[in-house]
Amino acid sequence: MVSLAKKKRRGPVYAVVDLETTGTSVKTGSRIIQIGCVLVQDGQVINEFETKINPRTVVPLTIEQLTGIKNNDVRDAPLFEDVAPTLKSLLDDTIFVAHNVNFDFPFLNAEFERAGEAPLTIPAIDTVTLSQILMPTAPSFRLRDLTSYLAIDHDQPHSAVSDAVATAHLLIELLKLLADLPTITLQSIVDLQLTLPQKTAWLFERELAKRAVEPQPLKEELYVSNGLVLHKIRPVSVPTAQVAGKYPATKRQKKYLFGDDLAYRPLQSKMMNAIYNQFSQDDPVRQLVLEAGTGTGKTLGYLLPLAYLTYPDHRIVVSTATNLLQQQVAKQTVALLNDHLPFQLTAVVVKGNDHYLNIDRFAHSLAVHEDSQLAQALKARMLVWLLETTTGDLDELNLNAQQAAYFIEVRHRGVRTLNKQSPFYQDDFLVRRARQVATANLIITNHAYLVAHPAELGGDDRGAFLVVDEAQHLSRAVLRQSRQTLTFARVMMILHQLQNLVNQTGEQNLVTLFENLPLGAYNVELLASDLRELEGRLVDFQQALYGLVKGGQDGELVEQAIDNRQLAGMLAPTNPLMVELEQALSAINLHFTALNHLFSSRSETWLATDRYLMTQFASQLAGLKEATRMIKEAGQLLASQPEACVFWLTIRQGDEQSTLKLSGGLLVANHYLSRKVYPHFLNHLFVGATLFTSGRSAYIFNQLDLDRKQVRVKRFASPFDYGQNARLFVAKDAPAPGATAGEDYIDYLAKMIYQLATKTQCQTMVLFNSLLTIEQVYAKLRNTDLFNQRDILAQGISGNREKLLKQFATGTNSLLMGAASFWEGIDLPKEQLELLVVTRLPFDAPNEVINRAQSALLKAAGKNPFYQVELPKATTRLRQGLGRLLRTPQDRGVAVVLDPRLVTKRYGKTIQAALPSDLPVIAESSDLIVVKTKKFLKGPESATNE
After folding, report:
1. SS3 684
2. Which of 145, 169, 607, 628 sits a CA distance of 20 to 30 A from 884?
3. Mean pLDDT of all residues in 657-681
4. What pLDDT score was predicted for residue 2?
5. Which of 472, 345, 365, 287 is nearest to 880 (CA)?
6. Measured at the alpha carbon of residue 739, what is the angle toward residues 736 and 740, in degrees to the nearest 5?
């Protein structure tokens, strides 16, 4: 134990405490086995206290594996009763701090009471909640992730003293951030009257009180607009006409340009020259398809030559498959290029409107105290975020689905929906973005936005060069644009929310808002009647759709394709049902518009809460309009292209609450890209690491809507040494699809994942074809001790994709189970990923409605669906999955495929031929794979030629 003397200083003393316990509840017999306490004052650690505690009970194996504390370690330790008086004395007159204070503080107090001591009555604050508010863009709020994010040493997670020291340093950083908040922002947070764990909200109140005595000037990079503190953005400036200079074609010229920070890569250089030569000559071919294997450095490889080709007369538009890739291009590659080019690229990231915050709506929401404390805390977090964001991109906040519910009220709906008289119009993030786009020479967008807004992106007078990165996904964006799902439970929820906003008892509503204005009261009455009428028509519409569903037992989830002719007749504009739906919605829109005019004409008389009420109604009404728009578009699609689309209903039979969903859209892109997108751009470059499935396959050309004769093709293999640094093991005794019962297959997967994970103890990713299989395997593994050895992350269970990837990237012994999007777009170099497990060859599920319809369409055209689409798609996806393994020349890794078809089926040879030619593919029994994987991962000296 360390000396407990507390040196008196000016500031308060914070006692940062962490407990290790035998379980989660004192009431069920759980006891403390270790206490760590660190005293912090005036930004310094002034004292530490640590002791193990004899719990007088057995330390469970799970706790031993988690903390490293064994029964022998606590056998001779003091009892809690022996240290309680000393600990109580230490904590008196301090501010108690913990990372998840609602566990540590009550647990410790319960132990004090059990030992005959009075419980602590000191203030207690929570660093989890403080971190969420004061570090709004942190990727995760687990202690381990926060310490990594802030570069705080934390070598022994789940050791009380190590956790307490790490939390103490986290607290010091958080108190600095708190002291740095502008007074206006601090006042806004206090005004929210937050309900936070213990006395956490008191910290904000105390800091605000301090400002009355010690005023704080506003920082240079901030400004105040109508009560909100925002971050300034650099003034929009037209790039000065610097001379682009001569393109560095030779190795010597590139090395000179790159200097010491960028390595010269021979394959990347060839790629650069291929692009520059293609588009700098008078070649009538304007389209280049370029496959660059993993490790080529394709982003820099295409941006550098295109920068020289376009500056200063043209613009580059880069379209990526995901928003994450957009950020990587903007924040990493462009910054790197601008450090070396003789001119500057001015880049702007462009996404869909609903990715951005509407500041006006947000400001109005601050005046309303939400019933949801989650929403109130999110407002505080966003107030702090506004001090740092220059884009207003909500993706920066890394939010989960629960928090995202509040965004329906405050997310953007486009510049056209803004009131130009709003005091926040000039501050609006989309208005700002439009100014930046007008002068940018590089726009970075995603495939969905490109497909929806090609004229906006490429229609500039200067002309634009289009780059489609991860081009294999572009056609999917076209299909996604046409495919939509209408969830009737969601529509009815919106309708009921609108009805509550009109006349909910005990709440502010439109009836009370307009009760003293006869014209307003009249329109509110009509509005209530319109909403009831629309509800009746929606019920009729659902009943009509129910009539199209055949069979199904109670409780069974039915997914059933609908006859296009029947649905087209139902959705026809002349159908009385559709006429009545349209009339009801038009009446609602008419009467709310009348209320809006009345409201606007008396703008000076309303409170902020009144404005927020009108904003809420408008937001929900927009959701209702979106639903009816989807119904109309489905009808138009069925009328114009009945043979090229498919629609289906999903319903759980026998449910009292409606689970009905109507989904559907196009099956094929029908030359949308060649007719609607490509003509807006001067030249087109299609790039990807895994574009081709064989030298003869027309798959990628069909997907990209390209005429093979009018396209140049370049292919660059990966520079990595797969023969030396990688192995692909195929389990020849794994259950083949359909060969075993479903439960036996899940047992096999769980057993193999468990054995590989326990024997290798390295960063492991397991790729699945379905979320259901992940859930089933996760449940099996939950009954093992694997969770005590490894950090287990599972898509659909542990969080969303971005959160899981950030947690996995900062881990050292994590196991991540993912499907779909986890097969690609993930960069995990070196020790971040060493073992990749593929549970099944990634074929699409043949029984899904949309896959059946696509197959039928191809057969009707005289084509073989398996060889034309299914096999090329699976081959591409497997190449993408295996591409996660080696990301740098120094990486070593093993891929294990638990599907024998890769070596037993003839098409397996076709798939193998598309893999890196020097990658050893070894078929082995499952047991031997575990042994050989462990041996190979030990290092080159242990790996022999299997």
Report:
1. strand
2. 145
3. 86
4. 47
5. 472
6. 110
